[in-house]
Design goal:
The complex is a heterodimer. Chain A is built from 11 helices and 14 strands. By secondary structure, chain A is α+β, with helices and mostly antiparallel strands. In chain A, helix 1 packs antiparallel against helix 11 and helix 8 packs antiparallel against helix 9. In chain B, strands 3-4-2-5 form a 4-stranded antiparallel β-sheet. Chain B has a two-stranded parallel ribbon with strand order 1-6. The chains are: A alpha+beta, B alpha+beta. Chains A and B meet through strand 4, strand 14, helix 7, helix 8 and helix 9 of A and strand 3, strand 5, helix 5, helix 7 and helix 8 of B.
C-alpha cells in the first residue's frame, strides 16, 4: 500500500511533466517533405484576431439595379454576411458597416481559410432556372428565358442517398421547395417543353451551371432536385446559401493581412503576462500553503496541459480552437475553479486534523468534502457555457437553442463563444486535475518524510 | 498573510450597513453612467479608421503618441500588409463622429515628421458603425434571462432541503450585484467599452457562482453535520466564517494576477483588469457579507408567511 502510493504519486507527476513538455515543444513527425503535427507546440497555436492578427477584407457595394444604395441595403448585406459566416462555422470575426464608403469591413483570424471565406461571403447568392442550356460565348452566362428565381423558392434542404442501385457512393442531394407561384411557373414551362417534344432546363447558382435536367414530363411536385455531390459540407453550404438568400448589392472584395488588435507586440505581451501571472500566483500559493500548495500547483499545471491538448485539436471531436483573449479568460476561470477545489481541500485538511483524525483519514474526508462543494459549481458552469455557446455561436449547439431565438436574427459573438467554449473544456479538464491531485496527495501522505501533520496545516 | 479572524463578527446583525454600502456605490456608478455615458469603442460605439500607406520601418510607439495628440483621443494602431504592394498603417479611433480636419492635420504632421516613410498623402477614411445593433442587444437580453433563470433553478433544486427558493433568490441578487459593479467600474473609471466588459462580466459571473455555491454547500454541510437546532443566524455566521478562509485566499491570488496583467498589458487588457478587479472584490465582499444575510431574510419571510 505504502509503496503503491509512492508509485502513483510519481506516475501522476511524470505524466503531468510529460504532457506539459508536449504542449511546449509539440509532437510531430516528418516523412519526406510532409510534417504531420500530432500535438501543437506553443508556436503552432492558432491565435485570435486580438492576439495574432488576421485578415481584413473590405467589401465595396455596387448597385445591381441602377438605383442608389441605401443604408438599408448595407445593413441587409451585413446581416446576410453574418448568416453565411455562421453557416461556414466562422465564429470569431469583427464586422462593421461603413455608410460613407458603402462598404462592409470584415476581419477574421488567420485560422480560417481566407479565400474561401471571402468568396462565400461575397457570393451574390443568386439562384435561377433558365430554359435551355445555351450560353453567351463571351460571358459564359445563360441566354435562355429565366423561368423562376430565388424569389420563387421557399427553402432548400439536403438529403442523402445513392444515385443508383449499382453505385455504393453516398451522394448528398440539394432539393428546393418552391412557392405556389414558383410551382405554377415551373409546371407551365415544363408542360410547354413536353408538348414540343422535350427540352432542357439549366439551374444556375451565381453564374455557375449546377444542374441541367432533361425535361421529359411536366413537373408534378413543389420539391425540385437541383444539385448532387459526394461532399456533405458543400451540399450543406449550398442549401444554406439558398436559404439565406440573395445579397441586395454586388460586392467587390479586396483583402490584406492585418496585425493584432492588441498591438504589433501582442503575442509577446500575452506571453509575458501569462508567464508572469503563473509565476506570481504559484509563488503566492506555495508561500501560503507550503507543500500542499505545491501539489495544488502541479495539479493546476496538469489542468492547463489537458486544456491545451483538447483545444489544439489533438482529439478529433474537439476542433482546433482559436485562442483569443476571451478564450484565455475562459481558461483562467476554469483554473480558478480548480484552485478553489485545491484551497478548499487544503483548508479542510487542517480542519479535519484538528478533529484528531489520522492523516490518511483526514485527507480522504477533506477531499470528499472539497469535491462535493466544487462539483456543483462545475456542473452549473458547464450548463451556463452550453447556453452561451448555443446562443452566441453557430453549429448544432445553436440549433438546439433555435426555438428560444426564432424571433431574432443570427447574431454570433466571438468573444462570448470563445470564453464559454474554453470554460467548458477547462472545467472538464478540472475534473481530471482533481483526480490527479487526489492521487498525489494520498501518495504524499505515504512518504516517510511527510508523515508529520505540520506539513498539512495541522497543529505544530 | 493570515486570514483575519471573522468568528466573532455577527454578519446578520450588521446587515443594514452591509446592504447600504454596495447600493450607494452602484447608484453612484449608474449616475455617472447616465450623466457622462460610457466611452465606447469599435464594438459598441463604432469607430473611425484611417489608413495610410507607408514605406520602410516606422516607430509605432512614436506615431501612436503623435496620433493620440492630433486626434485628441485614444487610438489603436495596426499594420496591414499586402504581399504585392507594401504596408499600410491602420489607425482606429473610437467613436464614429467625423474627425474631419483633425485627419488632415495628422496627415500633414506625419508627412512632415516622417518624410521618408509617408510619401503618399492619400488617406482612406472609414467611418465604421458599431457592431452591436438592436438585434445584438435583444439577444443579450434573452441570453442574460436564460443564464439568470438557469442559476436560479439550479440553486433552487440543489439546495431544496435548505430553502431552495431563498437560495435561488439570494444567489441571483448577489450575481446581479457583482455584475453591476463591473458596469459601474467601467463608467466611473471612464474605461473604453469593448470586448473587455463582456469578458470581465463573464469572469465575475464564473467567480460569483463558485463563491455562492461554496457558501451554500457550507450551510448544507453545517446544517446536516451539526446539531439541527442551531439557530439560523449562528449557522449563517459559522458558514460565512468557514467560507471566508477559502474566499480570501483565492481572491488574493486572482487580484495578484490582475495586477500583473495591468502592469504588463495595455488597452483592453488594462481596462479588463481594472473592471474585473472591482468585480472580484465585489464578489468576495458579497460572498462574505451579502449572500448569507440575504438568504436569512428570504428564509425568515417564508417562515413568517407559513
Amino acid at each position: 500500500m505504502k509503496r503503491n502510493g509512492k508509485l502513483k504519486f510519481f506516475i501522476v507527476l511524470a505524466l503531468i511533466v510529460i504532457l506539459s513538455a508536449f504542449n511546449i515543444f509539440g509532437i510531430s513527425s516528418q516523412w519526406g517533405d510532409v510534417t504531420s503535427i500530432y500535438v501543437k507546440s506553443i508556436q503552432d497555436i492558432n491565435w485570435g484576431l486580438d492576439i495574432g492578427g488576421g485578415v481584413q477584407a473590405v467589401f465595396a457595394a455596387t448597385s445591381t439595379s441602377g438605383e442608389e444604395i441605401t443604408k438599408g441595403d448595407i445593413n441587409k448585406t451585413e446581416t446576410i454576411m453574418k448568416k453565411r459566416l455562421a453557416a461556414l462555422g466562422v465564429t470569431e470575426y469583427e464586422i462593421n458597416t461603413d455608410y460613407t464608403n458603402n462598404s462592409v469591413v470584415l476581419r477574421f483570424p488567420n485560422s480560417y481559410d481566407a479565400s474561401e471565406t471571402i468568396s462565400v461571403v461575397s457570393d451574390a447568392g443568386e439562384l435561377k432556372f433558365v430554359s435551355g442550356t445555351d450560353t453567351d460565348s463571351t460571358t459564359g452566362l445563360p441566354t435562355g428565358d429565366t423561368i423562376i428565381t430565388r424569389e420563387h423558392v421557399k427553402s432548400a434542404k439536403v438529403k442523402s442517398g445513392y444515385a443508383d442501385s449499382s453505385d455504393s457512393t453516398l451522394y448528398y442531394f440539394v432539393n428546393v421547395t418552391l412557392t405556389d407561384e414558383g410551382y405554377q411557373l415551373m409546371s407551365e414551362a415544363t408542360a410547354a417543353m413536353v408538348e414540343e417534344g422535350g427540352g432542357t432546363i439549366s439551374v444556375w447558382f451565381d453564374n455557375t451551371n449546377i444542374y441541367s435536367p432533361k425535361i421529359e414530363e411536366e413537373v408534378s411536385s413543389g420539391e425540385i432536385f437541383v444539385y448532387s455531390i459526394t461532399d456533405e459540407e458543400k451540399a450543406n453550404l449550398l442549401a444554406e446559401e439558398i436559404n439565406i438568400g440573395q445579397l441586395p448589392v454586388a460586392l467587390s472584395s479586396s483583402y490584406t493581412n492585418i496585425s493584432a488588435a492588441f498591438g504589433v507586440q501582442a503575442r509577446k505581451t500575452i506571453a509575458i503576462a501569462v508567464v508572469a501571472i503563473l509565476l506570481v500566483v504559484t509563488a503566492y500559493i506555495i508561500f501560503k500553503y507550503r507543500y500542499l500548495g505545491a501539489v495544488a500547483c502541479i495539479a493546476l499545471l496538469g489542468q492547463i496541459s489537458f486544456i491545451l491538448i483538447l483545444i489544439t485539436g489533438f482529439f478529433s471531436p474537439f476542433p482546433n480552437f482559436t485562442l483569443s483573449f476571451p478564450a484565455l479568460a475562459g481558461i483562467a476561470v476554469s483554473l480558478i475553479v480548480g484552485l478553489t477545489y485545491q484551497i478548499t481541500t487544503i483548508n479542510n485538511i487542517s480542519e479535519e486534523l484538528g478533529k484528531e483524525r489520522t492523516l490518511a483519514g483526514s485527507i480522504k474526508s477533506a477531499q470528499k468534502r472539497g469535491f462535493s462543494s466544487v462539483l456543483h459549481s462545475n456542473i452549473l458552469l458547464i450548463l451556463i457555457s452550453i447556453v452561451l455557446v448555443g446562443l452566441f455561436g453557430s453549429g448544432w449547439f445553436s440549433d438546439v437553442f433555435a426555438p428560444l431565438t426564432f424571433m431574432l436574427d443570427t447574431v454570433t459573438d466571438g468573444a462570448v463563444y470563445s470564453f464559454a467554449y474554453t470554460l467548458g473544456i477547462g472545467i472538464i479538464c478540472n475534473l481530471l486535475a482533481i483526480g490527479a491531485s487526489r492521487i498525489m496527495l494520498s501518495g504524499l501522505s505515504t512518504f516517510d518524510r511527510f508523515q508529520d501533520t505540520k506539513f498539512y496545516g495541522g497543529a505544530k | 498573510m493570515k486570514a483575519p479572524n471573522l468568528t466573532n463578527i455577527d454578519f446578520i446583525a450588521k446587515r443594514k450597513l452591509v446592504f447600504a454600502i454596495p447600493i450607494i456605490i452602484i447608484l453612484a456608478g449608474l449616475v455617472v453612467a447616465i450623466v457622462f455615458g460610457f466611452n465606447t469603442d469599435l464594438k459598441f460605439g463604432g469607430s473611425t479608421v484611417i489608413e495610410y500607406s507607408y514605406n520602410g520601418d516606422i516607430d509605432l510607439g512614436e506615431i501612436k503618441s503623435t496620433a493620440r495628440n492630433e486626434l485628441g483621443t485614444s487610438v489603436r494602431l495596426q499594420v496591414s500588409t499586402v504581399q504585392s504592394s507594401g504596408s499600410s498603417l491602420v489607425i482606429t479611433a473610437p467613436g464614429n463622429n467625423n474627425l474631419g480636419d483633425k485627419v488632415d492635420t495628422l496627415t500633414e504632421k506625419l508627412t512632415e515628421e516622417y518624410p521618408d516613410n509617408f510619401t503618399d498623402t492619400s488617406v482612406t477614411t472609414r467611418i465604421l458603425n458599431s457592431q452591436a445593433n438592436n438585434q445584438y442587444y435583444y439577444r443579450v437580453i434573452v441570453v442574460s434571462a436564460c443564464v439568470l433563470l438557469l442559476v436560479f433553478v439550479y440553486f433552487a433544486i440543489r439546495f431544496r432541503k435548505i430553502g431552495g427558493w431563498s437560495a435561488g433568490c439570494a444567489s441571483v441578487i448577489t450575481l446581479v450585484h457583482n455584475l453591476l459593479f463591473v458596469v459601474a467600474g467601467y463608467a466611473v473609471c471612464r474605461l473604453y467599452l469593448d470586448n473587455g466588459i463582456i469578458i470581465a462580466m463573464l469572469f465575475v459571473l464564473g467567480y460569483t457562482i463558485l463563491n455562492t455555491m461554496t457558501f451554500f454547500e457550507y450551510i448544507r454541510a453545517n446544517k446536516t453535520g451539526s446539531n439541527k437546532k442551531v439557530a439560523l443566524n449562528d449557522l449563517v455566521n459559522l458558514s460565512i466564517t468557514k467560507n471566508s478562509r477559502g474566499v480570501i485566499g483565492i481572491t488574493a491570488a486572482i487580484l495578484l494576477a490582475l495586477m500583473v496583467l495591468t502592469i504588463v498589458g495595455s488597452g483592453t487588457l488594462v481596462s479588463f483588469s481594472i473592471a474585473t478587479f472591482i468585480g472580484i472584490i465585489a464578489s468576495a465582499f458579497s460572498s462574505i457579507c451579502l449572500v448569507g444575510p440575504l438568504w436569512t431574510i428570504f428564509r425568515n419571510k417564508k417562515a413568517k408567511t407559513k
